[in-house]
Amino acid sequence: MNSRKVVNLFLKTLAIGGLVGLITSFFVNVEGVYTDNLQPFNFLGLIGVMLFFIGHGLLYSAVSQTGFFAYLYVNRLGLSIFRSFWPTVQFVLIAFITFDLIYFPYKASDGEVSLIWFILMAAGLLLYGYMIAKIKAKETKKHAFIPAFFFMVVFTVVEWVPALRIGLIGVDFSIIMVITLLVCNTYQLLVLHRLNQADGTPRKGKK
């Protein structure tokens, strides 16, 4: 990709993150901030709250983009080091990260949250990552499935969990963050090959 397309991808992903952060906040309604400005109606307060959540979406989008470019580097590095064993290594890392996503948050909750909820959360992420990876493989090549699945699971967790561990965000904001990360990660993953094709890279099945 040339620099113009990189900047275009950055700005579009940023805009998507801001929009998703705002839309998700409508459903989460963190600490009743929307209802507080609707009853009684406070126009300036409502605009301020919306800008606040757009800002959070932009921040999470920036985290997603940092993770995406790190993934591109890690994938190249993994191929050069592990070669034919790289897919196996990725599956091991997926299993490890999935365990991490279940065990450590459950341990941090001191049993206040049932283990089944953390298992369902991890299962939902795996299922979503699997679906997106299948789409990526269908639109490109079969061997793209494992790297795509690896990115959607491992890098989403790597981008999301540290903020939870150090207590930077609460439950409501964690929901906004993970949804924004998933949407931005999905967009970047699925649009990358289209940008490469526009640069003259052969399409699936063509030399």
Q: Could you walk me through the main structural features you see in this protein, from its secondary elements to its overall organization?
A:
It contains seven helices and no strands. With 207 residues, it is mainly alpha-helical. Helix 4 packs parallel to helix 6 (145-165). The longest helix has 40 residues, at 43-82. The model has no long low-confidence stretch (mean pLDDT 89).
Fold blueprint:
Layout: H1 3-28, H2 33-38, H3 43-82, H4 86-108, H5 115-139, H6 145-165, H7 171-198
Organism: Ornithinibacillus bavariensis
Protein name: KinB-signaling pathway activation protein
Transmembrane segments: 9-28, 40-63, 84-103, 115-132, 144-161, 167-187
What attributes characterize this protein structure?
KinB-signaling pathway activation protein; 82% helix; KinB-signalling_activ; mainly alpha; single chain; transmembrane helix
Q: Concise description?
A:
With 207 residues, this protein is mainly alpha-helical. Helices cover 82% and strands 0% of the residues. It has one domain (3-198).
